[in-house]
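Notes to self after the call with IL:
- keep both proteins in one doc
- input above output, always
- annotate only the second one for now

Protein 1:
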Amino acid sequence: MKKLQLTLLTASIIAGSAMAATPAETAKQFNLDATKAPSQNFDLTKWKINLPTLETQGARKGKTVEIPKQELGDTKKPFSDPEWFYTNKETGAMVFVAPNTAPTTPNSKNARSELRAMLAVDYGEPANNFVVASHPDAKSYGAIGGQMSATLAVDHVSESGNDKKSGAFSVVVGQIHAAKNEPLKIFYRKLPGHETGSLYWSYELNVSKENHNARDENGKKLRKDIYHNVFGTKGLRHDAAAPTDGIKLGEIFAYDVNVEGDIMHLTFTKNPSSSAKVVKTFDIDLTAGNYQGNSADLGYGNTWMYYKAGAYNQCNTKKSSSACEWRGMEAGDYAQVSFYQLDLKQ
């Protein structure tokens, strides 16, 4: 096994030569039934979901549709949405769809069809979230650490956008969100005309409240994302070659996020069901702070966190963001992700 030593993290690669598994073979591996609703193929009892459409009545009228975990995890009266969250009728995969323009949650400009881990019933209580082991009040929270494992494929990303903006043509397929910032976002991005896309992840510096909008001597925000390539390269332009080690639309890959003690262990796998698999791993101390020499970073040792998974479309129509268009679903202005496996252990 070849190992690459990187600052604050490590990467490893395992390679073979067999053919990758097809969606049908992957669905069979995870015993998916194409006739069943998502909650009948996946354990959704610890998740709620937000969808890119508005509630028309009740207490959440005018806000994005949110299905609580009691309803989402119900296997006798299972929930699905024919546009945004449903079972693929050929494979049984759990499908998330998010258009370029749609209602969004309050603190975001991007549409999402995305799960949010719910360890308790009430959103705001400490028992609903997890912390690292060294958190000063760890026993008050729902879990110490936890593991999210997924096998999935990105079926589609927006076909419009400004290639100079990293949000264009991209979707977030997994996250750890904290009280303010995000120690982990997993991105997939593929440019039109490229056969393969890039998988990469980010660590957002967790700065103090006073530094939330502060800038350094060069005018750059202290609160920023630090990106790490996994397969392919972040920030490719139209005139660049497609990544030779990238991932195609519809190609199955896997990720595993395991927060154990104070360490976030990340594992990304291409061709996960074959001997041709390629594995890359990263280990990050969430309590260390000063991430890659950024002194404003406090780390995530004193905050609570929760897992997210689905399709968080990074495209929107703002020129300053990604300059994506909204010409309708038929024009390809949406993101779609299919999960063949999703496990949460907390």
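Protein 2 (the one to annotate):
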Amino acid sequence: MRYRPLGRSGLRVSQLFLGAMGFYESGGADGMRGHRAVLDAYADAGGNVVDTASAYGESESVLGELLTGRRDRFVVSTKYTISRDQADPNAGGNHRKNLILSLERSLRRLRTDYIDLYWVHVWDRHTPVEETVRALDDAVRAGKVLYVGFSDTPAWVVSRADALAQWRDRTPVSAVQVPYSLLKRDAERELLPMAEASGMTVAAWAPLAGGVLSGKFTGPGAVTSDSRVAPASLTPRDHAVAGAVREVAAELGATPAQVALAWLLARSPAVHPIVGARDAGQVTENMGAVDVALPEEAARRLESAAAFEAGFPGDFIAECEADPWVFGTASVDPGARP
């Protein structure tokens, strides 16, 4: 396992994050033993970031119990935005009132005095981003939050929030959280370039596309029913990509899940896949992705199976850069930028 700084901070975070949505229900004594085994397997493999949210059922409370006696060993991240009471118009959103009340509840559930990484869970277009930035900074200054991030938010909003933070000497945005996988590459249009240019960490959720890229629904022994994904709804593109992943995995002596995660890790040093797991064995398998060296030819094969277009303005600008009519005939070394 290797570690990278979180955004522009000095906090070291592991290549793979553990998603704790699977701790949605405690499941009694047997369930807690299973949850503990998952967390232990993740920690034994060198992982140190556990990601949860106020809206993930009992996850925060379960995690709080599992971290007793070793809380400071982990980078704990949780989120706010989702409504705490659907009958109360102020129980959801990114405004100051919901942030304060959600944060206090998360601290109690997690049995901790501080959150390492506090996320805005989803963009709230009704709350000025200036209010959110200031409220997050106040939580940091109070010592209850160390770093902040934005999940499921447009690139222009995140960029504006980070610029406001820098201009006004407030806590910068350290990370963004987005869905990202071989099957869902939308983040490459705006969010990933913005994060790379701004020095932000990218936490990639659903890196296995709900299990499709693990081979769970395709190939030998495929599952025919699942609570998250309807196998019958998979498209020819889904099957083609999953098949390419299986082929590369067989060539490399790895599992399909490891190959799909290794592809993400190779895309950018900013990207950190969030892996979930039903048991300790699955955690151990997923964590093995950090040891998979993906040849460039194999990466190209995987990408060619998943047709993707950046669209405007990305594709248009790329065409302009290749056209001497626009910038002349002299070539520019892309590595020469300071």
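Annotation: The radius of gyration is 21 Å. DSSP finds twelve helices and ten strands in the chain.
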